[in-house]
Amino acid sequence: MNPFGKSFFAVLSVILSVFVLTAGPARGEENSELMGKVANKAYIKECGACHFAYQPQFLPKRSWEKIMNTLDSHFGDSATLDEATRAEILTYLVKNSADSSSSKLSRKMLASLSSTETPLRISDTPYFKRKHREVRPNVFKRKSIGSPANCAGCHLTAEQGDYDEHKVKIPKN
Ligand code: HEC
Ligand code: HEC
Question: What does pTM read for this prediction?
Answer without folding.
Answer: 0.87
